[in-house]
Amino acid sequence: MKVMTATEVARNLSAVLDQAEHGETISITRGGRRIALLAPATRTNGADLIALFAEHETLDGFAEDVEEARRTVIDGVSAEWDDA
User: Fold this and answer.
1) pLDDT of 32-46, one tens digit each?
2) How many structural domains is the chain composed of?
3) How many angstroms separate the Cα of 68 from the Cα of each of 24, 36, 59, 60, 73?
4) Cα separations (Å) of 50 from 40, 46, 54, 57, 58?
5) Per the confidence metrics, is the pTM higher than 0.85?
6) What is the spatial distance between Cα 29 and Cα 73, in angstroms, rounded to a whole number?
7) φ, ψ for residue 24 (rounded to 5)?
8) What Rg, from alpha-carbon coordinates, does the chain have?
9) Could you tell me the residue range of the domain that residue 26 belongs to?
């Protein structure tokens, strides 16, 4: 893994992106501390997602659980904003 400072990355962004595109992972540091990792993006065509859907069945009530969680979060956020 290559290590670069944030300043080096900023000055050489195009070259750093080329390295990531070719499989290199870069650890980015600031003040001697690692603050980020720049890694190659995974490439897929959706086949893995389709295979996952084919392999696993939907749980009964899943859509209702998601909707209930959504309402809870939205109502909770609205209540917090109202109290502010």
Assistant:
1) 999 999 999 988 778
2) 2
3) 43, 36, 15, 14, 9
4) 23, 6, 6, 12, 13
5) no
6) 36
7) -80, 140
8) 22
9) 2-38
